[in-house]
Structure formats: structure tokens, C-alpha cells
Design a protein that fits this description.
Strand content of chain B: 25-35%
Oligomer: heterodimer
Largest sheet of chain B: 5 strands, antiparallel
Number of strands of chain A: 3
Distance between the termini of chain B: 19 Å
Radius of gyration of chain B: 17 Å
Largest interface: A-B, 46 and 38 residues
Number of domains of chain B: 1
Number of helices of chain A: 1
Strand content of chain A: 25-35%
Structural class of chain A: alpha+beta
Helix content of chain A: 10-25%
Strand order of the largest sheet of chain A: 1-2
């Protein structure tokens, strides 16, 4: 089980800033969509370095025994 | 962290949700619900009106033209939704300049918007199986929420 966390700031003028934490790769865009649906608004999305990391459950295998 | 989302608030809600946010905002500013014909109880010399800029007109909702009034001393703030569905705030009072009333009105608009955002986020994220694990209000009025969910 992975823990996914959102840190939400609701500014005094009502602007909402959300940090999506614990979600590597493009999976965090699912949360962006949820938040946009919840607030019924498009938002400005800034991708952090973690966004460009592979999700932990995606593995790459190279089978060296494969013969042509 | 994987992403930061900055979302401008929209208020396309039904009147009960707006009214709840308005009541919370007014209470935070020290106002209490005005009863009866509150409008006549203020010896009004000045009135200002502010629009909630991101409120959306939803013509399919039936109850338009509603309002909710709160009072503190000689000042009244009225949250309303006009016949086109737009949400706004009127502030009236005696012994205050237009600028002072406008400042109060802007505080009310901000409070309404923040309260609406708070309630909508908490309600909807709970439906998405998030749990609120921490909540605090900063000195500048920013509300910080930490919500969490677990995924396979």
C-alpha cells in the first residue's frame, strides 16, 4: 500500500494550492484531475522533479537469455 | 512532491452551500445573523457592493435572487445572488467611509470564497476516501490541510 498525501493551502482570498506527495510519475495527474473536478476549475500545474521519476511499481526487465 | 496545483476558486454552488460559507465568513468577522427587517435598522448613509469575481451564473438552479444579512453594530453585510446567478456582497453602515465599507466587503468576499473552498474540498475529498490528518490556520489566515489516502 502506498500512502498518497495532499498538502492543501487555502489562501485568504480563496485560492487553493495543492502539493501532491508520494506519487511518482504521471500518476499524480489523476489527483490533479480529481482536484480540478472537485473545485470545478482548471488550475495551473507545476511539475516537480518527482513527477519525472518512474512509479515504484513499474519495473524494467532485460532477459539476456533470449536468443535470436 | 510530484506536482503543485494552483486552483482559482469558482463558486457555482447551490444557494445552501453559499449560505453556509457566508455564515461562516460573517461569523469569523464578528457579525451575527440579522433577523426580521434588518435593512431598516441601520441608519444607512453609505452602501457599497462587491461582486464575487469567480461566481458563475447557473441559470438552471431555481432559487435565484436570495440573500442573507448579518449585522455588527451599525454595519450590515448582505450576501446575495442576483437573478442572473452571480454572487455578491453589499455592505451598508453609518459613520463609515465608502473605503472602510469596501474593505469590510472585501474581507467578507474573501471569507466567503475561502470557506466555500474549504467545505467543498473537505466534503469531496472524503468522498474520494481521503482522511484529514492535520489542519491549522496560519497567522495570515491561510488554512493548511493535510489529507491522506492509501492505494494498492
Amino acid at each position: 500500500m502506498e500512502c498518497h498525501e495532499l498538502e492543501i493551502e487555502i489562501k485568504p482570498d480563496g485560492q487553493v494550492v495543492v502539493h501532491v506527495k508520494g506519487v511518482k510519475g504521471a500518476g499524480c495527474l489523476d489527483y490533479v484531475k480529481i482536484l480540478q473536478q472537485v473545485m470545478r476549475a482548471e488550475g495551473k500545474v507545476e511539475r516537480t522533479s518527482e513527477f519525472y521519476e518512474s512509479p515504484p511499481n513499474v519495473e524494467t526487465h532485460l532477459d539476456e537469455n533470449v536468443k535470436e | 512532491m510530484s506536482a503543485i496545483v494552483v486552483i482559482p476558486i469558482l463558486i457555482p454552488a447551490a444557494w445552501p452551500a453559499i449560505a453556509a460559507a457566508a455564515a461562516a465568513a460573517a461569523t469569523a468577522l464578528g457579525f451575527a445573523a440579522a433577523k426580521g427587517k434588518a435593512k431598516t435598522s441601520v441608519k444607512s448613509s453609505t452602501e457599497v457592493e462587491l461582486a464575487v469575481s469567480n461566481s458563475e451564473a447557473f441559470n438552471d438552479e431555481v432559487a435565484l435572487g436570495e440573500q442573507l444579512t448579518f449585522a455588527k453594530g451599525d454595519i450590515q453585510i448582505t450576501f446575495f445572488r442576483n437573478s442572473r446567478g452571480k454572487v455578491g456582497v453589499k455592505v451598508r453602515g453609518s459613520g463609515k467611509t465608502e473605503e472602510q465599507l469596501r474593505t469590510i466587503g472585501q474581507q467578507a468576499v474573501n471569507g466567503l470564497t475561502q470557506q466555500y473552498a474549504y467545505h467543498r474540498l473537505v466534503t469531496e475529498l472524503k468522498k474520494q476516501n481521503f482522511t484529514v490528518v492535520d489542519e491549522k490556520v496560519e497567522a495570515d489566515g491561510t488554512v493548511r490541510l493535510q489529507v491522506r489516502t492509501f492505494k494498492d
